Automatic annotation (TrEMBL):
GO terms for molecular function: ATP binding; magnesium ion binding; thiamine-phosphate kinase activity. It comes from Marininema mesophilum. This is Thiamine-monophosphate kinase. Coiled coil: none annotated. Reaction mechanism of ThiL seems to utilize a direct, inline transfer of the gamma-phosphate of ATP to TMP rather than a phosphorylated enzyme intermediate. CDD domains: ThiL (cd02194). InterPro entries: PurM-like_C_dom (IPR010918), PurM-like_C_sf (IPR036676), PurM-like_N (IPR016188), PurM-like_N_sf (IPR036921), ThiL-like (IPR006283).
Amino acid sequence: MKDEFDLIAKLLQKRPPVDKSVEVDVGDDAAVYRPGLGMSQVITCDTMVESVHFSEQTMAPEDIGWKGIASNVSDIVAMGGIPKHAVISLAAPEVWEEESLLRFYDGLGAGAKHFGVTILGGDTVRSMKGLVVTITLVGEVERDCSLRRSNARPGDIVFVTGPLGGSAAGLHLLLREDTSEWIVRYPSLVAFHQRPYPHIEAGRVLSTLGERVAANDVSDGLGREAREIAEASGVRLVIEPSLIPISPETVAYGAEIGVNPLQWAFDGGEDYQLVGTLPAQSWERLLHLAKEKEVSFTQIGWVEEGEVGVYCIDEGKRSLLSYKGYNHFA
């Protein structure tokens, strides 16, 4: 890279069209946009660091861009919101050629377009070692309709919105020495890890249901995310592992290498599905709305009074879930 500003101009060409809510676009010191009438703003920030979140072996530049947007979108979805505007901070080392950075922005732009996000600029600097990407995403949700981890109550149903464990299985596959053979046999596992699809409509169904709903996105494993709901709400979550949806390829790959796929579901993370709770009397209405919007919800347990935590029940026997999940400083 010879010139920072020439690179910025090329990167900006990769953006999807700017939406009508933007009053001042790139070119001034800051962007200006109008929030929707009657909406509250939702803001989140996520960072991806080379050798921590990705490597040349596990993700192409386009995948890094896509996943950077998707991980932030998932946070907005978990609040029941609509993703709107993003700013991107990119710290690039000298070994990252301009072509690779443009490919990164191709993936970023494709993800932004798919999820309806307008990129309003950001910052570009030199990194001494490794690519570092930080994305701040702003979304909107109807006033007083955001989903909260603290909303779970005894008697609620515990649900998830889609299959779990696929991303961790995909990462395991990509880190193998003989990975090329396995990629051909289990392509969906690679996709789960490299190109996640958080379901905006699932969050929207929950936030507009008019009920008390708790939700959390499964970025650090089902065990940790369920525990966060239990702690925030002061309740006990009981999960039946046999009810957890797991894709056929995740099950097949686990069987072939001798790993229980539930381990990936509970401790893996980066599935970007939702785990949540809602009153049992609202479950059938949720399923009806979900069918109309073509999204899925699966009951995996219930909420009860008792010592705060997450318990698993298998063949009538209960055990306290000893979760791991992803922890940057563990």
